[in-house]
Design a protein that fits this description.
The structure is a single chain. Helix content is 50%, strand content 11%. A six-stranded parallel beta sheet has the order 1-9-6-4-2-3, with helices on both faces. It has a three-stranded mixed beta sheet with strand order 5-8-7. Strand 7 and strand 8 (160-164) form a beta hairpin. Helix 4 (74-87) packs across helix 5 and helix 10 packs across helix 11. It folds into two domains: 11-178, Rossmann fold (3-Layer(aba) Sandwich); 183-380, Dehydroquinate synthase-like, alpha domain (Up-down Bundle), CATH 1.20.1090. The protein has helices spanning 22-27, 40-45, 47-57, 74-87, 98-113, 185-202, 210-232, 237-257, 261-273, 277-306, 317-331, 348-355, 370-380; strands at 11-14, 33-37, 61-65, 91-96, 122-123, 133-137, 149-153, 160-164, 172-175.
Length: 381
């Protein structure tokens, strides 16, 4: 049994129209000035103003920073930090996808503790208490709303920095599935694959424990059943609700279990080629499942057996799980070969070297080296 220390840090408020409670929940924290961190797409969808209206109705003064972009970098964090320094908030609200929530956390680190984003790369490096945060995710993907980590890229080196501290965890996460109905189809596909990869990777890491396994299992059950339904009918609110809850449970699993080789492989693809994270993890995941399955196949078979609709006919549950991921990747309209993503074969060695330096690789259940990572890239090519 792996020891763990479980203390819920984030209040989870789930259900349709719960965004209307944002102002009330903020007021309960005893705050008065809210900096809302969002992005232009969420602003255009009307969700940002919906949240701001709720805050204003509750008597809070608000300011909007809508300069977040996908895979936020130190550049966006610094821009938001300037807005925070001018406005002097006592609450941060991350309203949008995981990028908006991570950007808000990044702003919080520097605004509350000083220095630069690079100073917080790692775990437990906050030097002071941080401002309270509320997360309102509009996608079902990263699970950042339930984590104490912000994933921020260095704008110069493109290195993804995982900056984690328990003081960075959100006080409240508002999970309103109605907000996910406006996602473009490609965002639904990419974030869904990301969430699915989190459920599967957290279940088998070296840090897995009784608490993380419980979240991973429930996340898998929700996501694996709901994701194909959402892809077939994007307006299926019940399926959207399952996706959002499943993504948040997977985020909780990450908090207590970490990730593995799939994310080690995916990050260099994003850094070198700009391949969307959900595309990168979705493409690599089936190959990692089979690689890990040579030693830890029973864990994958356990997960597959949890979802009765997938048990069609006879056959190895490990193979069927890998095939399920490949099938849903195609249903999502995403590419299943690196060669189709513009990756050159001659650069696979360079990518493997970069993947071998990724933090998440050390938590992979099967020990993995640069040669193994190269083989996985070649299989995916």
């Amino acid at each position: 049994m792996i020891p763990f220390d479980y203390q819920p840090l984030t209040r989870m408020v789930f259900g349709p129209d719960t965004i209307d409670q944002l102002g009330t929940l903020a007021a309960q924290l005893g705050v008065h000035r809210a900096l809302v961190v969002s992005d232009p797409g969420i602003v255009s969808a009307g969700h940002t103003q919906h949240g701001i209206d709720s805050l204003v109705k509750a008597g809070l003064t608000t300011c909007l920073f809508d300069g977040t972009r996908e895979n936020p970098t130190t550049r966006e964090v610094d821009a938001g930090l300037q807005v925070a320094r001018d406005f002097q908030p006592d609450l941060l609200v991350g309203l949008g996808g995981g990028s908006s929530i991570d950007c808000a956390k990044g702003i919080n680190f520097i605004h509350s503790c000083g220095g630069h984003m690079q100073d917080y790369w790692g775990v437990g490096k906050a030097t002071a208490d941080m401002l309270p945060m509320i997360a309102v995710p509009t996608t079902a993907g990263t699970g950042s709303e339930m984590q104490s980590f912000a994933l921020i890229s260095d704008a110069d080196t493109h290195q993804k920095m995982a900056c984690g501290d328990k003081r960075a965890a959100c006080r409240v996460a508002i999970l309103d599935p109605k907000l996910t109905l406006t996602q473009p189809a490609n965002i639904t596909s990419l974030t869904g694959m990301d969430a699915l990869s989190h459920a599967l990777e957290t279940y088998v890491t070296t840090k897995r424990n009784a608490m993380s396994v419980a979240f991973s299992r429930e996340s898998w059950k929700l996501l694996s059943e709901a994701f194909p339904r959402v892809l077939a009918n994007p307006q299926d609110l019940d399926a959207r609700a399952s996706m959002q809850l499943g993504a948040s449970f997977a985020g909780l699993a990450i908090e207590y279990s970490m990730l593995g080789a799939t994310h080690a492989l995916a990050n260099p693809l994003t850094a070198a080629y700009g391949i969307a994270h959900g595309q990168a993890v979705g493409l690599c995941l089936p190959h990692v499942i089979r690689f890990n399955g040579e030693q830890f196949g029973d864990w994958y078979r356990e997960l597959y057996a949890l979802q009765a609709p997938h048990q069609n006919g006879t056959g190895d549950g490990l193979v069927k799980l890998s095939d399920y991921v490949s099938a849903v990747l195609k249903q999502a309209g995403l590419k299943d070969r690196l060669s189709d993503c513009g990756v050159q074969r001659e650069r696979l060695g360079e990518l493997a070297a970069a993947a071998s330096k990724q933090w998440t690789g050390i938590f992979n259940p099967r020990k993995i080296n640069q040669s193994d990572l190269l083989s996985l890239y070649e299989n995916a090519f």
